[in-house]
Design a protein that fits this description.
Order of helices and strands: HHHH
Largest sheet: none
Shape: rod-shaped
Structural class: mainly alpha
Radius of gyration: 25 Å
Helix content: 55-70%
Number of strands: 0
Number of helices: 4
Length: 104
């Protein structure tokens, strides 16, 4: 694909200098910069998605926010917010294992 862009002279001269130092042409320098940018952004988004999925999975398993924080190293606010956005109620210690009390 061919793309035509207007680059201000000072930026062009800076790019030309960097390209010369690396022994490549300016268009290839720009292509490499774009690839690095896309790769970095993709990696960041994947890491954020993995972080969120781990918190949600542990919450669905019935772990408390405190336990999730200990296992993941995440902060309490992040865990609580992520859990709530996933529509999962807070798990309280002993809630699932404590039998219901009867009132006489």
């Amino acid at each position: 694909m061919k793309l035509e862009i207007d680059i201000p002279d000072p930026i062009w001269f800076a790019l030309a200098g960097i390209a010369e130092d690396r022994d490549i042409k300016v268009p290839w320098l720009i292509v490499h910069a774009i690839r690095d940018l896309i790769g970095t952004e993709h990696t960041r988004l994947a890491a954020a998605r993995h972080r969120r999925e781990r918190v949600v999975a542990l919450a669905r398993e019935g772990h408390t926010d405190t336990v999730i924080c200990e296992r993941t190293g995440e902060g309490r606010d992040y865990v609580a917010t992520t859990r709530r956005r996933a529509g999962i109620a807070a798990n309280r210690p002993g809630r699932a294992t404590t039998p219901a009390r009867r009132v006489a």
